[in-house]
Write a structure and sequence with these properties.
There is one protein chain. With 506 residues, this protein is of the alpha/beta class. It folds into two domains: 343 residues, TIM Barrel; 128 residues, Jelly Rolls (Sandwich), CATH 2.60.120. It is built from 14 helices and 20 strands. Strands 1-2-3-6-7-8-9-10 form an eight-stranded parallel β-barrel, surrounded by five helices. Strands 11, 12, 14, 17, 18 and 20 form a six-stranded antiparallel beta sheet that branches. The two termini are 30 Å apart. About 4% of the residues have low confidence.
Length: 506
C-alpha cells in the first residue's frame, strides 16, 4: 500500500497575512500561499489537516475569532475556500480541532472582561487550573464533553470536510492532574460519542486524533488507546508531534484486526530540543524507521507552506511569528525526504531522542520526557548507554558514529566508546566543536522560538569514527565512559548528541 503524505497546516500563516494585508484579494492570495509548493512542484499530497479554529465564528472556541470576522466582513468563508481548494486538487480536507487551545489576548474585544473566555467564566466546573490563566478544558466534566460534541457536530454539518482530527497536543492536561489514568474512560467515551455523531452526518467522514507517541506517555496523560481501538472509536491516528522514537510498532500491535491508519508526525518548529530544522538526511532516516515499523504514512507540521521569499511576494509576512520561519524549512524538503527515504543510495542520519520540545504543557505528551539525552556520564568510570533506532540492513555500508559532549576538559579527559558492545579504537577527538543548538553551560532553551539557535555557543567535544554498517542493529546501543579523570573534578560530563550517519553508496 502506498504511504500517505499529509500536511498539518498551522493557522499562523492565516492570521499573519490578515493582520498585515487586509485587502479584497485575501482569499486568493492566502490560497496561493498554502498551495504554492503543491502546485509548483506537483507534490502528491493526500490530505491537509487544517488548523481551522482561526476561521470559525464561535468566540468560546476560536483562538482567532477576529480573523473570522475580518473575512466575514468581506463576504468570504475562508474555511470553505480552503476546503474547495483541496478538493479541486484531489486532496482530502480534514478539520483539525485543537481540543483545548489557549485563548489569545488579541480577541479581547470579542470576549468578556479583560479578554477572558466567556464560557470558561460561566462554567468554572469545566476548567482545570493550569499554567494558562484561564485554565484548560476538563473532559472529566460531562457538561464540557457535551458542549464540545455540540460545537464540533455543528461545524461538521456546516462544512463538507472529509474528516476530523482531534488534536490532544494542544493543550494538556484535559483530565484532572494526578488522576489522568483514573479518569481515562472520559476521553474514551468522548471519542466514541464523537464518532457516533459524525457518522450519522455521513459514514464516509473519517474520525481521527492526535495522540502521544508511546504507551508510557498515553498512560501518563489518560489515553486508553486499547479501549479506543476495541470500541472502534477512530479511523486514523496521528502519532506524536515532535518525537523521533514513535512506537508505531506498539500501535500496530493494538490495532491488529481493526482498520486504523497510523501516521507519525514531525513538528519542525517545536521539535525536540536541539533537533531543530534538521537536514534532509535526518528526515530520510526518521521516515524510513517509521515505515519499517508499519506506519501508513507521515504528517508534517509547522513547516512553512512556501519558501519565505515566495510568501513575501504574495504578501504573507511572517515577521509576527518571531522570525522562526525565516530560518526554517518549507514542506518541499520534508516531501523530498519522504520520496527519497526508501532509496538505499541516499545518505541517512539517525539520532538519539532529546528531552524537551514544546514547553507549554502539563503532562508528558510533546515533552519527550523519557528520552535518553542529555545523559550524564558516571564519574566512576562506568558506561552510559544511549539507544538509537537504526532499522534496516546496513551490511556493506559505511557509517559514522558521532557524539557531542559538554564539560569535557582537553588534555585531562579521555573516553571509551562502544557500539553494540564493540569497543572503538580509532575515535577522533575535537574539543572545539560548535553546535548552534546546544546551550552549555547555560540551560537548554526550549524549541519553537528563534532563540533555540544561537550564534555564540560554548565549545563542545565531538567524538567520531567511521565504522562498518554491519555493527548496527534495529536499536543500536552507543556506550560511552570517561576514563583517566583527575580525582578532584566532580562535575559530570554530559552526552548532548548521539548520531549515526549512513553514507550514501558511491
Amino acid at each position: 500500500m502506498e504511504k500517505k503524505f499529509i500536511l498539518q497546516a498551522d493557522y499562523n500563516f492565516g492570521w499573519n497575512y490578515i493582520l498585515a494585508n487586509p485587502d479584497v484579494n485575501a482569499a486568493e492570495k492566502l490560497e496561493k500561499c498554502y498551495f504554492y509548493n503543491i502546485d509548483k512542484l506537483g507534490m502528491k499530497v493526500d490530505a491537509i489537516l487544517w488548523e481551522s479554529h482561526c476561521f470559525l465564528p464561535q468566540e468560546c472556541e476560536s483562538n482567532n475569532t477576529d480573523i473570522y470576522q475580518c473575512f466575514k466582513g468581506r463576504g468570504i468563508d475562508m474555511m470553505q475556500v480552503l476546503i474547495d481548494a483541496c478538493h479541486k486538487r484531489g486532496i482530502e480536507s480534514i478539520f483539525h480541532h485543537r481540543i483545548s487551545e489557549v485563548d489569545s489576548s488579541h480577541v479581547k474585544k470579542l470576549k468578556g472582561k479583560d479578554g477572558w473566555n466567556k464560557t470558561k467564566l460561566s462554567h468554572p466546573d469545566w476548567i482545570i487550573k493550569t499554567w494558562w490563566r484561564e485554565g484548560h478544558w476538563n473532559f472529566a466534566s460531562e457538561g464540557l464533553r457535551q458542549f464540545k460534541l455540540d460545537y464540533i457536530t455543528s461545524i461538521m454539518r456546516k462544512y463538507n470536510f472529509d474528516g476530523i482530527c482531534i488534536d490532544f497536543s494542544r493543550h494538556l492536561p484535559c483530565l484532572p492532574v494526578g488522576r489522568q489514568w483514573e479518569e481515562r474512560h472520559c476521553l474514551t467515551q468522548f471519542m466514541c460519542d464523537l464518532k457516533n455523531r459524525i457518522k450519522r452526518i455521513s459514514p464516509a467522514i473519517k474520525i481521527g486524533a492526535k495522540v502521544p507517541e508511546n504507551n508510557r506517555v498515553c498512560h501518563d496523560d489518560g489515553f486508553d488507546m486499547e479501549s479506543w481501538i476495541q470500541k472502534d472509536a477512530v479511523d486514523f491516528l496521528v502519532l506524536g508531534s515532535r518525537s523521533v522514537t514513535v512506537e508505531v510498532d506498539w500501535y500496530k500491535q493494538i490495532t491488529m484486526g481493526h482498520d486504523v491508519m497510523l501516521y507519525p508526525c514531525w513538528d519542525v518548529h517545536h521539535s525536540s530540543d536541539a533537533l531543530h530544522f534538521m537536514p534532509k538526511e535526518f528526515y530520510r532516516g526518521l521516515i524510513l524507521n517509521w515505515f519499517y515499523k508499519g506506519a501508513d504514512g507521515i504528517v508534517g507540521f509547522n513547516f512553512a507552506p512556501a519558501p519565505v521569499n515566495e510568501m513575501k511576494k504574495i504578501g504573507v509576512d511572517q515577521a509576527s511569528s518571531g522570525g522562526a520561519y525565516e530560518e526554517g524549512q518549507d514542506f518541499k524538503e520534508y516531501y523530498e525526504s519522504y520520496i527519497e527515504s526508501q532509496d538505499a543510495n541516499k545518505k541517512r542520519k539517525y539520532v538519539a531522542e532529546r528531552r524537551g520540545g514544546y514547553p507549554y504543557i502539563t503532562g508528558s505528551f510533546t515533552t519527550n520526557c523519557y528520552a535518553p539525552l542529555p545523559a550524564e556520564i558516571p564519574n566512576d568510570g562506568g558506561f552510559v548507554d544511549i539507544p538509537v533506532e537504526t532499522i534496516g540492513d546496513f551490511d556493506g555500508r559505511k557509517a559514522t558514529v558521532k557524539l557531542l559532549i559538554s564539560n569535557a576538559k582537553e588534555g585531562i579527559d579521555h573516553f571509551a566508546v562502544l557500539v553494540n558492545g564493540a569497543e572503538r579504537k580509532n575515535i577522533s577527538e575535537n574539543f572545539h566543536f560548535i553546535d548552534r543548538q546546544i546551550f552549555w553551560p547555560e540551560p537548554q532553551k526550549p524549541s519553537g522560538r528563534t532563540y533555540c539557535m544561537t550564534d555564540n555557543p560554548s565549545e563542545l567535544l565531538v567524538l567520531s569514527e567511521c565504522i562498518d554498517g554491519c555493527l548496527l542493529s534495529d536499536k543500536t546501543i552507543v556506550s560511552v565512559a570517561v576514563i583517566d579523570r583527575t580525582d578532584y573534578i566532580l562535575d559530570n560530563i554530559t552526552v548532548e548528541r548521539v548520531e549515526l550517519i549512513i553514507d550514501g553508496e558511491t
